[in-house]
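COMPLEX REQUEST
Ligand: zinc ion
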Amino acid sequence: MSLLIKNIGELFDGYKIIKNTSIYIENGKIKSIGREEKADEIIDASNKFVMPGFVDCHTHAIFSGYRAFEIEWKIEGLSYKEIAERGGGIAYTVEQTRKASKEKLKKETMERVKEMIKHGTTTAEIKSGYGLDTENEIKMLEVINEIKNNASIDIVPTFLAHAVPKDMKADDFVDVIVEEMLPEIGERKLAKFCDVFCEVGYFNVEQSRKILMEAKKYGMLPKIHADEFSCMGCSKLAAELEAASADHLLMTSEKEMELLADAGVVATLLPATPF
Ligand SMILES: [Zn+2]
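STATUS: Structure written out below.
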């Protein structure tokens, strides 16, 4: 299968802009730029701009219950912790997501995926993490996988240990994750990555290590929400486990930055989150 995209006005190849050119692709791989070879399919770019698609490697695109009302509280100066205490935060979304049917979640998430496509995203990771019990985390992952099979872009499912349910102790919830959730997710191959929110009041370094080590046994690659509000050794853990990525990294020390770099852990920065 070959494809020629011709009449490109401007092409960004990842490094520089090339004017008035074409791309020749064979079996999904770019073979040449600027040579108009014979192809099975031809797309006329009509002098438009052509560039690689965006890869969004950190999204919480599946949930029910928008929390736009929190913006006003943020402007008032409330912290993440204070917002949670006032009835916002992850717990609010968990309540709404648990109530939502699979159909409702799928419809709402597809709308967000369509919006991503409009903005040029061609690969998106989507995390679970608003169920916080086996039934609802599995429900979220099933919906992500249904979307993966139907969307016109690449979708990558991640299981996220996002928070501890209100009525449980963290250690007990870690046991539920390790004994119930991960075996089912692993056996049914519902997630490519396992992610943990490693933070004060969420999962500590030991609990995060336990979850990620267990997930590795099922072939899931580790990722960590690290150092968002405090530097407590989460990046060090990401380096130790050779995680695929460490995300947020607002409070990371210089020493830990070096550890991440040496271990080849991708640093995912999410600069819009603190505002
Ligand atoms: Zn996140």
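REMARKS: The radius of gyration is 21 Å. The pocket of zinc ion is lined by residues 58, 60, 225 (CB under 6 Å).
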